């Protein structure tokens, strides 16, 4: 098979050649865009799922849908060591520019508020790089979105930005990736702002994406967050969608898969979108001819697994300290001992992990908490933990 024509594209957040299995989410979001633009009530959206299921890809596809509708959009990636102000300011600045409001004076007024919001946390005499305002050549407004209370300031800022959208019959959408990494104060402020904006009927929505415990993070901040957002669990693809993700790009390159080849691919990938692209690329490069068979998948599997071991699993494993790696391996061993399908996505009790290591659960809290902060594991319920990466347990056991 010609490697130049290989259509498969494993990459972080990189859109696959065929965005299979997400038609329902895209169609539902089109309805949200139309309803919000017409002043009808609608909730903001939160996408949750494991690493490698395509949350970022879907987030970008939803943003593209908003852009096609003429909305103003901006995107940011949350980081645990960064306040929300500066990245959100950058995202909203882009959204205001995309909106193309015809009244320059009104747009400049909002940009002044945006600049005041962005610069509020800068210390007196701060250097230019610490006072975010690229492209904003209007003076910072005073007395609006600059109180220093992020909750008050965010409500005022989104109200003003939403007013611009309302003037032109369009909306403003802010897309936040890795939303679980927002600080507690920023999460609380964002929830409060979304609540206020929805009550005001302004055309502003937030679309967040994060790990499976993101709903719990939001709920811990504001009890009404369960009603504030519409939650969509993004999971691995069905067998039908998996086959389409492989066959549609192959058809475009005048190639095909045999039925047994597709079955072998599904068995190897489990339907996880990132794995589909990684195996698809390796199988294409190694297959001698079309159609691709189960034997071709078997030959290429070691190459795909090496790629995943370095780029998907290994890069995360290397971020852990020796004590944290011991904890991860103990999680994998506990799953193997207690579950019929140890590589199925599931959680294990922290007490079982401690038993594998022969230690008391309390003594392992520092390692567990560090892994939670690094996003390598998550806790969906009290006393239980799970890997954020599918098949991570198998990788760890193979390394032993």
Automatic annotation (TrEMBL):
Residues 1-22 are annotated as: Disordered. InterPro entries: AAA_16, Cyt_c-like_dom, P-loop_NTPase. Pfam families: AAA_16. This is ATP-binding protein. Keywords: ATP-binding, Heme, Iron, Metal-binding, Nucleotide-binding. Gene3D superfamilies: P-loop containing nucleotide triphosphate hydrolases. PROSITE patterns: CYTC. It comes from the Bacteria. One of its GO terms (molecular function) is metal ion binding. Residues 166-317 form the Cytochrome c domain. It comes from Nocardioides acrostichi.
